[in-house]
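Memo to structure team: turn this sequence into structure tokens by end of day. - J.P.
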Amino acid sequence: IVIDNSPGWSTEHSPADSAQLVTMLPYSIISSSETQNTGEQKTTVKVIQCNSPFLSSADAVGKRTDYYDRNLALFEEELDIRPKVSSLLSRLVNYTSITQGAKEHEEEESADASRQKTPKVSRGGPRSFHNMYTQSFKIWKYYTSTVPIQPFSLHMVKSVWCFIAGGAYFMISRSLGPEFGGAVGLCFYLGTTFASAMYILGAIEIFLKYLVPQAAIFHATDPLRSDSALLNNMRVYGSLCLSLMAVVVFVGVKYVNKLASLFLACVIISIVSIYAGAIKSITHPPDFPICMLGNRTLKLDGFDVCAKTVMSGNITELSQLWNRFCLPGNMSSTHCDDYFLHNNVTEIQGIPGLASGIISDNMWGNYLQKGEILEKAGLQSVDAHSAIEYFVQYVSVDITTSFTLLVGIFFPSATGIMAGSNRSGDLRDAQKSIPVGTILAITTTTIVYLSSVVLFGSCIEGVVLRDKFGDAVKKNLVVGTLSWPSPWVIVIGSFFSTIGAGLQSLTGAPRLLQAIAKDNIIPFLRVFGHGKSNGEPTWALLLTGLIAELGILIASLDMVAPILSMFFLMCYLFVNLACAVQTLLRTPNWRPRFKYYHWALSFLGMSMCLALMFISSWYYAIVAMGIAGMIYKYIEYQGAEKEWGDGIRGLSLSAARYALLRLEAGPPHTKNWRPQLLVLLKLDEDLHVKYPRMLTFASQLKAGKGLTIVGSVIQGNFLDSFGEMQAAEQAIKNMMEIERVKGFCQVVVAAKVREGIVHLIQSCGLGGMKHNTVVMGWPYGWRQSEDPRVWKTFINTVRCTTAAHLALMVPKNVSFYPSNHERFTDGNIDVWWIVHDGGMLMLLPFLLKQHKVWRKCKMRIFTVAQMDDNSIQMKKDLATFLYQLRIEAEVEVVEMHDSDISAYTYERTLMMEQRSQMLRQMRLSSAEKQREAQLVKDRHSLVRMGSLYSDEEEEVDVPLDKVQMTWTREKCEAERKNRSNAPENFRELMSLKPDQSNVRRMHTAVKLNEVIVNKSHDARLVLLNMPGPPRNADGNENYMEFLEVLTEGLERVLLVRGGGREVITIYS
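Reply from structure team:
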């Protein structure tokens, strides 16, 4: 940039003003020179983007004293990249050209838009379900498209794992981790347990309705309340049956296996008899009449003839049916029900046979509301009024039916496919037996169920199919009437089938619970892992019996069945998910023997299971998911940690890799910037964290968001200190857990602490997930320490963070910082905004106030105005800027008038330099003696023939061995000469005059400290711009003194340095 210093310009502005103008631009000056060209004075300034935190021109440094304020001398070396607030505030309000800011997001997006390709849009259309053959076919469609997918996933998973007990739980926990395995395993256990209750209730219903109806204990006095009596009978007999079955299971699983063969034979005979009866109905359908009044179905109970009148010889008499709708013995129609009078009584066959064509009437669904009367669509009927007291004579619906309800009731009949996997521990070769058996079981049940739907729809009248309790057929079993040779084949077969299914559930459920308990992922279930000496789960069986008793006390199959469906569907869902995840991740250990499979099949099954859960009963689905979610969180926080090489860990690694690669695209936008911390901790001799409140402050600042890396350095050799490093890592991790810091720990071993810190700053993080802020403790006691490495390491770290363009935070007096259990109910967080540093000072209090410790503190922002600044306008501009940032804070502009340097400042500067000189001489003498001893020890070594006082000698931590020194005449004379020079050194120290630049810096520190203490002495926390270290290393010790003076009298101070970029923006 060439700035023309024409006469009009030069009369008002100096070349230094030109340099100041350039500092207003988002660039840094790297050189400036005055040239003479054709009589015109020009100032040529070379500028580059701000990629260096320091000026590199000695000329510019020399001219800086002309325009830098005396009150900001402490910050003068960096004012070109960290300008005064007063010089930038008006531009901050407009927020158009900020010194350190990256391009604003509109420009950034417009620039990126030209580089980005137009994304491809994936379009997909909705899928629709088509009407099936019947509503039963539609329900069967869900079964045939959901359940048959399971064996493929089962086959894949089971052909990989070497199975022990646990079945589905073992598969899911080893594939998706203990949290998912435990949650789904317990839900599946509850489902299997409730299934045993459902099967027992089914057996008792058959027993009381068809086998021994006279065994009922409770009898209904009111016909409208007959259901309650039936449920009470089922509760009593169901509890007895459950007790007997639990005793059989307790005696041993071998007896269950022997009974299973008997039960299987009964089931096969029953199925064959249904097919035989359906074939026989083609030519000889069974006589199975039902009585219809108009198109309404009558209960065939209390009358024997389906007619209004009967012929007794030549006399027409009133039938029993007439007496039900009219006054008994009265032939007058005025005392009869209107509907009964206007409609005819007809008798139709309930099972017209396979050749009747009844299937056309049963083609479509007819869902009814609770209390509606079953009606046949093809019969004539006169719509007449009917009194409410006569509705008990008709067959009505006991519950409101719907497709989703029927799916929930039907689905448990398809859940037996997991019975084999539940008993995987008892099988000789589970990897072979379970998949083959499961596929054969599904194939068999699919054929049987599908053919049964067709046969029932082709042979049986629709009103009979909808008659749940058989009221229209005198409580007879319809399927039994259809079967051949006798209805008792179906009754006995159904009874033993339900008993056998209940025994299988009571056998598998305790073993599933025992497997969960033995894995010790849920502590309070540990007792159920014990059993008899032969491994039988005694305590698990007892708990299973108690839970099954709860299901029996419910007593209603229609209420128990949807619960089972949810738990079983959830189990199927996660079996499919486990298989799909393992296949997609392609982990080395995933080597299935079954090859005829694709991961999309599992995703299809998983999606259909989820859809079926909500289709059948959305509220039961939410309850089931809530139960599984609570178990998951409990295992996550209270359960034992298990490393089973599960797929979720592999999925996390893949997701982390993908996210890291995405972050590599570029640095985060200002809107997304948040401090990603590298916390440098110091350990004591016992490898304990010396200042735990550093971690407390980090947890309060981060609140679990973003990246936190806790690092420390152990001095020594890596080979010798590896164990010490591991112990230090464990100690830091324990402290992080106590202070609730969610992050990572990294400890390095280095020969020098300074080098170790540099390694941490350079190498911590991975890819785009790297730290952008360093949190470092204050070197307490640096004045009293004879070892200069204490403060030299601190200053070197400050320089390294600046060079790496990282932000820096130094909490001073960190021991006084609040713990996570404290609460500030009032008070202020004061921000002293001296120079513009990227907005860190305004962002940090906002983040702290998100934590409960600082939430009720108010935020105050102070800035400094010089003599030539308009403090009133500065306050307005700052308030406007904070309003645009949506930050609530009080604003105050403090005027610092130019004043003469006080005697106190001069004397304090003098004492500082005298102390530095004395310590330098003391260290010089000590280093000379150590060097002499080392030369005597290593007589033939030339390694240490360097300077008398070097950094290398400073860093030697290993104490030198004692050596026997031999005194010569030359050495003795040199010692006398050094002693004779001591008074001369003292006189030189007393006559020392302080450097003027140090005096100005001390003046800045003293004046700022006076103002800060005056305004913020009672603040909960003071945030302050941290001055940069001097470019000349000779002033390092003076720099520490300046920082001490600047922060004197303040309880809690946070020194902050920006990282060279904007970190806050007005855009949301």
